[in-house]
Amino acid sequence: MADIKLICRDLVIRALNDLNRVKNPGTAEIDCAKILIETPPDPNMGDIGIPMFPFAKIFHMAPPVIAEKVVAAITVMPEAAAIGVFLSMGPYVNIKLDKSSAGAVVLNVICSQQEQFGTLIDGKSALNGRRVMIEFSSPNTNKPLHLGHLRNDALGESVSRILQAAGAEVFKVNIINNRGVHICKSMLAYMKFHQAHGDTPESLGIKSDRFVGDCYVEFDKYSKTDATAETQAQELLVKWEKGDEQVHALWQKMNEWAINGITQTYKRTGISFDKLYFESETYLKGKEEILKGLEQGIFYRETDGSVWIDLAEINLDKKVLLRKDGTALYMTQDIGTAIYRHGDWAFNQLVYVVGSEQQYHFKVLFYVLKKLGYSWADNLYHLSYGMVNLPEGKMKSREGTVVDADDLIDSLRDGALEEIAAKGREDAVGDPAVVAEKIAVGALHYYLLQTSPTKDMLFNPKESLSFNGNTGPYLQYMGARISSILKKAKDAGVVPASPEQAAKSLTSEYEWELIKLLGEFPKTTVKAAETLDPSVIAGYLYDVAKMFSRFYHECPILGAASHELSCARLLLAVCTRIVLKNAMRLILVPFLETM
Q1: What global pTM score does this model have?
Q2: In this predicted model, what pLDDT tens digit does every residue of 485-507 receive, in sequence order?
């Protein structure tokens, strides 16, 4: 609860250290990190619980006895009475907070910090000094972004925002996979089916990345009729690596088409990067490192000329690092890219947001970099996430069954427009198309982020757009509803009370539970940052929205029993709006004033 829990923690640690000086004179003071702050299972037992189990060995005393002595010591501290009642309940020190004092602290912190609320604990940034580089998205330039990319993008951007909110310095990077045999497959299809006609995305009226993706699908169909198709694509890659001018010119043109289209989708979904890396510019560094490692005996060459690493040390078999024709693999490129990145921006940690099917790849990558002698390889982390599919089943880009990201957002936007029209809200919301787009993006991101990253998930477009239940539009509706309440209050001349005045009036069960929940936001942000899990924020947001709805139903604001109570409840609505807006930004759900 904002700073209240920290105040309680400090009082308990003072009492414990007083006891320690008596029981163990001359020993080091007990670190506050040993204090665990919990929430009692029954509100009647208190609002905060602190277990004494960690101190049993220090004092050679039973936890219930320690709890009694700590409570006795705190009770005589002058500042304790203003906090609440401290109770020994078995092995716990429980605190029943004084609603007026504790509520004032929470409301005052929210009002004073405003858009910064949720980023500071005890006035400090929890992750201050941490430098985290995050790689996400990593599109291939042979197809547009699809639903799988959307989950990747949402995770990467959300985790970046959460880490920044918790005080970390974040550098967002994207490796554009713009070379390799998959790119050559699209190029080969263009050469065979489009080049002679001078086809371009503009001439065909197709979004540029979609056109390149169509070529990739055409190659798959062609490969089923010509057994040499794969060989032709591989030969094209060899020509590219040898610098063939005509091949490079076509490669450059098709890459521009793909990247321009992908960039439009990033802008639409609020995704951004601090730096783009291109595989075509980093893979040679990887080849250089592999050859250096070969000379040092870290790697070995097979009789066919390919270069491998033995992975027995990490209980795996072996892995090829350079093909027999000398061409690079993804692994080669990732080795070079990681080395470039640390040189560009010395990180404390590098997080790769990549699907769970690549777990083997990253185990090998991290191992190879360690064997090459890079000490920072110990700070590499694979944020693995599960697959995402639609009810229709698994998607395959080469077969053209992938759901294009833009098509999916378009369908969500159209569904939101229909809902706005059905409710007769076209004039009330301003520009329906703009609002519908924000509802679509909010529905998409919330649905993708409410599930823990490690789990596979089924994306149900219809469910995601619901204005009721655990969805992005429900959060947006609640934000718009509070905004409407504040506007009506302003028109009626009702102004929010000060935190101190409001806290004296906000004593009902519904008001108190909402205040306590709002105070949990900073701790929730830190938990999400430490676990790299946006679903922590999503779950918290849903709880806040539900709690406010319950409060508003039971505790009228403008129709309160007194003017003072109206002003107090209005401040609670103001604080709830601040928390909703701050937290929604962390999970990429646009806040709406009207809906």
Answers
A1: 0.89
A2: 999 999 999 999 999 999 999 98
